[in-house]
Amino acid sequence: MHHFHYVGPNLHCESVDLAEIARLYGTPTYVYSAETMADNYRRLAEGLSGLDLQICYAMKANSNIALLRHFSNLGAGFDLVGGGEIKRVLAAGANVKSSVFAGIGKTEAEIQLALENGIFSFHVESEPELARINHVAGKLGVKAPIAIRVNPDVDAHTHAKITTGKSDNKFGIPLKHAAAAYEAASKYPNLTIKGVQMHIGSQLTSVAPFIEAVRKITPFVGELKALYGITYFSIGGGMGIVYKDALASGAKVWWDAQPADQRPLTPETYAAALVPLLQPLGLKIVLEHGRFMVGNSGVLLAKVEHLKRGAGKNFLIVDAAMNDLVRPAMYESYHEIVPLHRDSGRRALVADVVGPICESGDCFAKDRQLQEVGEGEYIAFMSAGAYGYTMASRYNTRAMAAEVLVKGGTFELINARETFEQQIAGEKIPAFLK
Ligand code: LLP
User: Fold this and answer.
1) In 10 A of CB 222, how many CB atoms?
2) 284 and 300 inside one domain
C-alpha cells in the first residue's frame, strides 16, 4: 500500500498536490512519500517482531541522505556497498555500527573506512577477500567482523539481470564450498566469524524461493553456530512490489479484491512463512530489503513536450528520459504512467511514451493506453522510488533530476536539480590543446 491517490481530479502524494511540486521545482523530479516508507518499514518490523531482528535497508535502491535519516530514525541500519555509501550513511548522521558491508570488490581503503567507523559486519564473497580484510584489520590492530555470503543455488524466478542466488552468478560461495571457506576464515588472526548471509535475487513476487533457500541453508547455519558461535543470519532482500497496477495497489480494497493465490507478496505473508523457519535458529536475523522499502514510495514527475502523431503510431514525448529512469530501457520493466490531472472527458490515447534522448532505447512504454495529454501537462511514472535516481546518469548532458520528500501536507526539496556548472566542474581543457 502507498500514499499516492487522486483527490478529485488531481494526483496527490499524501496531502500534497503533485502538480504544485512540478510547478515549483520543474520536471523531471522524483517525489517520495515519507509515510509510505515508514509504513513499509513498520509492517516488515512488526511482521517479524517474533525474531531478534535488524533491518538493514539496502541503500543502493535509493541513497538520498534524507531517506537514510528517515530509515535510521525508524531503527534501520544499512546494507551498503562501497566507500561512497559509507560516507552517505555518515553524512545522514546515521549509524554505520548497525550496517553491513556487501559487494564483491571491496578495496583496502573501503575496508579501512568501514572498520574505522565500526561496521557491524562484512559480507564476504570470496576467499581472497578474507585475506584482504584480515590484512587491513591487522594494520589497524583490530578484529574484523565477518559473515560469508553463501550461494544456495535457488532459482528466484525473476529477471535474469537481477537473479543472484544461482550457482552461475558471480555472487557468494557455493554451499558445498562454504564449510571450507569458513574454516579458512577461522585461521585468520584478525577476523571474527560473526554470521552467515544469503541473497537470492530481487523483485521476487512469491515467497516460495525464500522458503526454499532458507530451508536449504538452515542445516549449515546450525553447524556454523555449533562450530564458530555465529550470532546472526542475514537472509538478504528481494521482496518484490506491484508495478502493473501500481496506483490502485495503494488501496486496501485492491489487495482484498485479488484472488488469494494471486495476491502479490506482502510483508505479512513473507513473515508468516519465514518466522517459523527462522525462530528455532536462535540467531539475530538481518533483512536487507531495498525495493520493498522505497519502490512504491516514489514517483517520477515529467512534463509532456509534444504529442507526435505518426503513421500508425503516436509518440508521447516527455521531458524525462532513460538517463533519469533507466529500468524500462535496461530491464524492459513496466512502470505505470498516469496523468497528474485526470479528466474523464478526454479521449483515450495509445502511444509510445518516450524521452528526448537520441536513441531508440529511450522509451518508457510501448503502445500504452493513456488518457490524452497535451503539451505542458504533467504525468507521473509510478513505483519509481527504487533504483530510479540511484541508477540515473547524465547522458546528453542532462542534469540529475531534483528530489522532493513529502510528509503529510508539507514537502521539502531534498536534492536540488543539478546545474550545468556542477556537471562540468571537474572537467578541463589540457594545456596541450590550448
Ligand atoms: N542485498 C544484496 C546483497 C543485494 O545485492 C541487493 C540488491 C539487495 C540486498 C536488495 O535487493 P532488493 O530488496 O532491493 O530487491 N537495479 C535492479 C535491482 C538490482 C538489485 C541489486 N541487489 C532493478 O532496478 O530492478
Assistant:
1) 15
2) no
Q: pLDDT tens digits, residue range 149-205?
A: 999 999 887 776 766 666 667 789 999 999 999 999 999 999 999 999 999 999 999
Q: What atom of ligand 1 comes closest to residue 102's alpha carbon?
A: 3
* 330 conformational bin, left if phi > 0, alpha if psi -120 to 50, beta if neither: alpha
What residues in the chain have per-residue pLDDT under 70? 160, 162-168
Classify the phi-psi angles of 8: left when phi > 0, otherwise alpha if psi is within -120 to 50, otherwise beta. left
Give nearest CA residue, ligand 1 atom 9: 237
Query: Cα–Cα distance between 314 and 220 in angstroms, integer?
Result: 56
Q: Distance from the CA of 234 to the center of ligand 1, in angstroms?
A: 14
| Residue 368 sits in the same domain as residue 336 | yes
C-alpha torsion sign, points 241, 244, 247, 248: negative
If one counts the domains in the chain, the total is 2
Residues 273 and 364 in one domain: no
Is 358 a known active-site residue? yes
Q: What is the pTM of this model?
A: 0.97
Which amino acid, one-letter code, is at 130? L
